[in-house]
Amino acid sequence: MGSTMDKIKGKAKEIEGRVTGDKVRTAQGKAGQARGEVKGIAERASSRVKAGVSRAKSKLQRGRAKANARTSRAR
């Protein structure tokens, strides 16, 4: 949720800068929005990696269970 707040705060600063004619404040606002975008992308990437790791673990566990079942039948 931090990414959304960064975007909102950045937009507010950008608008403030435009209204007051403060180019520095406008640039700070745009930077804040960009920071929010990057955070959002990083959060989504992290979630996808965690989901992929979870799927890989599940597949590995199922594979081990099948291998153990085959081994015990062979004995």
Low-confidence segments? none
Question: In terms of structural class, how would the helical and strand content be classed?
Answer: mainly alpha
In DSSP terms (H or I, runs of 4 or more residues), the helix count works out at 2
Instruction: Kindly state the percentage of residues in helix.
Output: over 70%
What is the averaged pLDDT score? 92
Order of helices and strands: HH
Strand content: under 5%
Main sheet summary: none
* Total separate domains: 1
N-to-C span: 55 Å
Overall spatial form: rod-shaped
Number of strands: 0
- CA radius of gyration: 24 Å
SSE map:
Layout: H1 2-20, H2 23-74
Helix pairs in contact: 1-2
Give a verbal description of the structure.
The chain is an all-alpha fold and 75 residues long. The protein has one domain (2-74). The radius of gyration is 24 Å and the shape is rod-shaped. Helix 1 (2-20) runs antiparallel to helix 2. Helix content is 95%, strand content 0%. The chain has helices at 2-20, 23-74. It contains 2 helices and no strands.
Short description:
This protein is mainly α and 75 residues long. 95% of the residues lie in helices and 0% in strands. It is rod-shaped.
Which features does this protein show?
single chain; 75 residues; mainly alpha
